[in-house]
Sequence to fold (670 residues):
Amino acid sequence: MYFGVDYYPEHWPKERWAIDARLMKETGINVVRLAEFAWAKMEPQLGDYHFEWLDEAIEILGKEGIKVVLGTPTPTPPIWIIEQNPEILPVNLDGTRLGFGGRHHCCQSNETYRNHIRRFVREMAGHYSNNPHVIGWQTDNEFGNSHQRLCACSSCRASFHKWLESKYKTIDELNKAWGTVFWSQTYSRFDQIPAPLPTPNSHNPSLLLDWKRFCSDLIVDFQKLQVDILREVCPNHFITHNFMGLFDKTDYFNLAKDLDFISHDQYPMHFRPERDPLSPPQNLAMALDLMRGMKQKAFWIMEQQAGHSGWELVSPAPRPGQLRLWTYQSVSHGADTVVYFRWRTCLFGTEEYWHGILPHSGIPGRRYAEIKKTIQELTPVMKECKGMLPGAGAAILFSYDQEWALQIQPHHPQLNYIKHLQGYYKALFDAHIPVDIISDKEDFSRYKLLVAPLQFLMTPELSTKFKDYVSRGGHLVLTMRTAVKNWNNTVIPEELPGDLSELLGIGIHDYDCLREIEQSVKWMPGDAAITSESANKWCDIITLDGAKALAVYEKDYYSGTPAITCNSYKNGLAYYVGTEPGTSIMEKFMHEAVKTAGLSPVMRTPKGVEATIRQDRDTAFIFILNHNAYAVSFEIPKEWQAVTGKEFPKDGFVSLPPFETAVFKSGRNL
Ligand code: GLA
Ligand code: ZN
Fold:
């Protein structure tokens, strides 16, 4: 499977299905995702199953050689389920119960709802287990979306108590771990513990972190319920789920474990007023790299943007070339299959303005032509680079526990875990250094450079893992707010950076939170062009104990003290960054770290031109993507062969028009 669409036959008259299937085939589409919201149509009343309409649609698609991925329709329990058991509706953290009418109007711990799922998923799976056109399943749809405030109903609270009991065993252990002696919050039984509903002020930070972990585990468990049934009834089908990149409600590393591969929904253009209409290319790339990191393998895009996005408001139109460019970007970061959302723009419902490949009229237009061209030129490339990865020498550590703990206590109102990581990612992206994004459970030794920002929570095991990595020659970047707290989210009493001080060759005896305070950093290493730039949000005030300073603060009572340090430790190097440095210092620092680690760029390109790579032992595919709305021209290595975009290279130079792309092939590159 290389290209597909999300298709909703239930939204269109039957007479149209064959026309759609033929048009799909003409573009080169060979897979569709169906039915993830169609519960009411498949079971309009309890036990009254109607799969005949879906069978017919699958048959029509199958005749055109199109395979099917079915979604379990569990994000949309029909009204008759809710009528019988209104307690299935989720409860917000302010205590109000949400109503029927959107989607994900369901509590994931509710046993009555789970029983409906057991019954329905078994029935549906049984019906399709031997259908020759069905190849796999998507569980639910974007877990955690729609009801982002999660559920605090009595069933979830009881599940939280069980979760806590299995974690802490005794209530005394929990009291100790959370420090409940503070403000008389000591509990004598697990069932006294509240869900974090509003209080006169704020909750215990350890309770809050465990609540986030519990909610994440609940989603993993909710998915497992379906996965177990699907594996039993459909042993020949794959199982996946559509993730949402940098989304924060579930530990995706855990959610991924039960799946054969993960899928991701990639939407570069937004309609909501609180977001920029277009995500910058490096943020899109980072989401894709994180998705590849879930299993360290190629993945599917289950929803790739196919037109303007929109609900009540509408995003700008993707410019000619952009849909194609974004598809290339997804493939270049490891997508082996790209499924577009959606086939045709719907005439009703919340998503009337979420534009598909076809417009409302169903008449193929600009977007259809662009996607058809994309599919036809990219399919042969995808056949060849299937399964290939970038072979990155650098990695960034990503942790949901760190993210959640810093959401609870960001220190500075603007400190944001994802944005902080994006700063490091951008420096590597701009330098065209391929990056893997990995969990702290992963083997670090494969990487020459490991960037581990904001390791706020620390365990003795993790700290040993960092030390071992550097001992064996690794280059490690640690940053501000590292080893501050233990995994229960209470403070570690040792002076910072705790037992990492020998590794880093520094001590931190004081720190400053930059609330209305300006600070700047100066880059030191001896060159004439001294760069000075803002330090942001936080400053660790560092004393050297073996390390050398790479940058120093310029102002206030700690002017002249180190802001960024580097320490030789056994066979490797350990850097420490005590602040969130402005862009040019970040660039200088990462340039230094990359060079010292012996990493080389895919190639150097002008600003706004992405260069990514997928390779195996002998062959590399290099993707050059012009994200700019203007043309660029640059030199490419002589030995590279143009695979797509053959018209652009001339005399060793490539001139790419706005949003243009080109793919080259060479021997292994890095
Ligand atoms: C999400 C969902 C889809 C659809 C699109 C557009 O990613 O998975 O069902 O809602 O967004 O809003
Ligand atoms: Zn609930």
In short: The domain at 394-597 is CATH 3.40.50.880 (Rossmann fold). The two ends are 29 Å apart (CA to CA). The chain has 17 helices and 27 strands. The chain has a mean pLDDT of 96.
